[in-house]
């Protein structure tokens, strides 16, 4: 743990830093964990050295338990390397690394189906650590202001569709909580550009997870380049960020997205999904049934509030099954909401949601009538949720692909 002589601190802040430095000496931190590192924890706890120490020790324990950057031969799954969008394009005018995140390329559902959640956490922590090391090296040349990260998040084509799957929503929340607990005060500014109206829903959820200090770093702009381009140019020289964001950087072939440095992510191909090879058992989330050969399972749900949502998750053991949805109104008129068709849910869990625009009875059908040889073992979770009202963290179950 090395000391810095270029810090601009008040006497009280210097005393708090000295006290924290002494109290964590037993951790024998590497030299890369210098005074700028300790100041992050103090800043997150209003320069209370006792609280900062507790937060730091908890984080170091977490790093040990999750093997963060542990030299144990672990390599991240290639799908994470190839499809996790982000990259450093350059440096801002104070020397901080500029991280660009094309958010539309973040296929969280596809990544969760292709890699274990623990690997995703470990990989993202590894990414953050690598960005912070770049910032630390820059701060040795440009001073403490360069020890934080400047971020540009491009929200073009952002939608909430993939977050209708509860595991995806929960993973995002877990990652944000991980970030808050273990990477305090690393963000200098986050310029979120091209934000659609629906992003206000997601931002309200962020407010319930991130601290006030972090939220104050967010600067959000609608899809109006005349508003956000001058701001980026004010803080970052044009040769330090990509042309598609208003800078000058391009790939050798002229591509304005600068893919040689910025991983664009994208839709994860289904062939990369992990196979569903686990035996199906009853749980709090899933009900397991056996559907005999040549038989069908009908599940009926009554919708009493218009604009409610019918959601489903299901998977089978070893073989596919057909799936569809019908609706019956008060006059007993039946409508096909989703045609019955074959689903390869023995390979990948099927997840979906529809908006029930009208009241009535909705029938979910699992059809095994085409099979004359074998029955199917099915695990399912089908439920009705009410329309979105209060946009808080408690409404994860109600996140949908909302129209602007």
TrEMBL record:
GOLD domain residues: 270-384
Pfam families to which the protein is assigned, alphabetical: CRAL_TRIO (PF00650)
InterPro entries found in the cross-reference section: CRAL-TRIO_dom, CRAL-TRIO_dom_sf, CRAL/TRIO_N_dom, CRAL/TRIO_N_dom_sf, GOLD_dom, GOLD_dom_sf, SEC14/CRAL-TRIO_domain
GO CC term, one of those recorded: cytoplasm
Residue ranges constituting the CRAL-TRIO domain according to the UniProt record: 76-253
CDD domains on file: SEC14 (cd00170)
Coiled-coil residue windows: none
PANTHER family named in the record: SEC14 RELATED PROTEIN, SEC14-LIKE PROTEIN 2
Protein name as annotated: SEC14-like protein 2
Organism: Acyrthosiphon pisum
Lineage: Eukaryota, Metazoa, Ecdysozoa, Arthropoda, Hexapoda
